[in-house]
Amino acid sequence: MSITNALINLLSRLSLLIVIMYMILTLYNTRSLFIKLIKSHNAILLGILGAIFGIIGTYLGIWYKGAIINYRDVGVIFTSLIGGFPSAFIAGGIASAHRLFLGGISAIPCAIGTFLSGIIAASIHYLTHGNPSIITIFFTASFAETVHLAIARYMIFPESLAIDITHKIFIPMVVVNTFGVTLLATMFKNFEWQMQLVSKITTNWFISIFEELIGTINTKNSEQNISKICQIIAQNSPVDGVFVTSQNSIISKYPEDLNLEIDYKKSIKSKKILKFFKNGTWYIVFPITIGDDTAGTLIFSSKDKMKEVHIFFGKKIVHILSLVFSIQKAVIEAKLAKEAQLREFTSKLSPHFLFNTLSTVRYFSNVEPKKSVECIDKLSELLRYIYERKDKLTTLESEINAIENYLGIMKMRYPEILEYKINCPKIDVKIPPFIFQPVIENAIKYGRKNNKIKIEISCHINEDRLRIEIRDHGPGIDKITMGTGLKLVSERLKLIYNNQASLLFENSNGLKVIFDLPAR
Question: Tell me, what's the pLDDT at 299?
Answer without folding.
Answer: 94
